[in-house]
Design goal:
The structure is a single chain. About 30% of the residues lie in helices and about 20% in strands. The chain contains five helices and eleven strands; from the N terminus they run E-H-E-H-E-E-E-E-H-E-H-E-H-E-E-E. The protein is globular. It starts with a strand and ends in a 10-residue tail after the last strand.
Length: about 210
């Protein structure tokens, strides 16, 4: 299941990920994409639950990919905060891989560990540490796909981007605009620092 946050800039990265799983992995009928901007929070959780329940009934792992805004201990796909605790409750009794491309996304690892979902029942690949923002644009998801395409677990700790191709920093929570991240290193600025924890489930998205 792919979830797009509430800004147009989040759509491109999800579309590229979707193209990979639909066309290269031939999983078209099993892939759903949600545009979350105009969904109520409970509706979003209900749709995730429905998809996870379908996986549970089929005794299959559930893959959830999110690209959008995030804050400590929550993600914000529709402008409202949805706590990772609530998401964890939805994922209970499910073997899951959660790829979370949002600021502070590493905080879901702490929450899921407290709920005893990690490390035994799932895996999280997060674009940011629990106390950090990410400015990677689409780079994080693209790097994840490149790794999977090569049949390698995603282990990249730091993603760099050259000047002129950077994503956006999230900035203060109440800010109306976003700052372009500036490069200061010849190799490009670090635009994300990923973290991961849990079961080794990357193979679910490897080519056959």
């Amino acid at each position: 299941m792919l979830i797009v946050g509430n800004e147009q800039k989040f759509l491109a990265g999800i579309k590229q990920f979707e193209s990979y799983v639909r066309h290269e992995l031939k999983l078209g009928k099993r892939v759903t994409r949600m545009l979350a901007a105009y969904r109520k929070s409970q509706e979003i959780l209900d749709e995730i639950w429905d998809a996870a329940e379908k996986a549970r009934r089929g005794r299959s792992p559930f893959v959830l990919v999110y690209h959008g805004h995030g804050y400590p201990n929550c993600f914000s796909p529709n402008g409202d905060d949805i706590g990772y605790e609530k998401l964890g409750q939805v994922l209970t009794d499910t073997t899951f891989l959660f790829i979370d491309d949002s600021c502070y996304s590493g905080s879901c690892i702490d929450v899921f560990t407290e709920q005893k979902l990690l490390p035994d029942f799932g895996s999280v690949i997060a674009a940011a540490k629990s106390d950090e923002e990410t400015a990677g644009g689409d780079k994080f998801l693209n790097d994840v796909v490149d790794s999977f395409r090569s049949k390698k677990p995603f282990m990249k700790k730091k993603g760099r981007q050259i000047a002129g191709k950077l994503g956006h920093t999230q900035g203060p929570r109440n800010a109306d605009s976003f700052e372009i991240a500036k490069t200061a290193e010849p190799r490009g600025q670090i635009v994300y620092e990923s973290v991961r924890y849990g079961k080794a489930l990357d193979y679910l998205l490897f080519p056959k």
